[in-house]
Design brief:
Elements: H1 2-20, H2 32-48, H3 52-87, H4 93-121
Length: 126
């Protein structure tokens, strides 16, 4: 699970860097997926090393980061759309798509991480 977490962290970092260098959006907020990816990557690296208790703890932390990142991305996309419509302008679709792609990446991660957490909670079979 640790290697897979690092892969998703890299996907988030690539999304953030691509979003930052897109011509329609050169703002620091476009790098937000990079920061979520860095945190997820560090915790994924820490999951790979240490005792079994430490691995379980970081597995839970990775899942919590994924949930929070998913909620942030989805909320940010909805907020960007709503704010633009409230002001009476067309929303910046690139920002909305960027956040929705981040939400989808994290949703796929959660579909893999949550069963792993549930499996880790079960007592070992004898």
């Amino acid at each position: 699970m640790a290697k897979l977490t690092i892969v998703f962290a890299i996907l988030l970092a690539v999304l953030g860097i691509a979003g930052y260098f897109c011509p329609s959006s050169i703002h620091a907020i476009a790098l937000m997926p990079v920061w979520w990816g860095i945190v997820l990557g560090i915790c994924g690296y820490l999951t790979a090393s240490g005792t079994e208790t430490r691995k379980k703890a970081f597995l839970y932390i990775n899942t919590a980061i994924g949930i929070l990142g998913f909620l942030y991305a989805l909320g940010s996309a909805i907020n960007a759309y709503g704010a633009a419509r409230t002001e009476g302008v067309d929303p910046n679709l690139f920002v909305i798509y960027d956040r929705l792609i981040m939400a989808v990446i994290l949703l796929v991660f959660l579909n893999i991480a949550v069963p792993a957490v549930l499996k880790a909670r079960r007592p070992p079979e004898e």
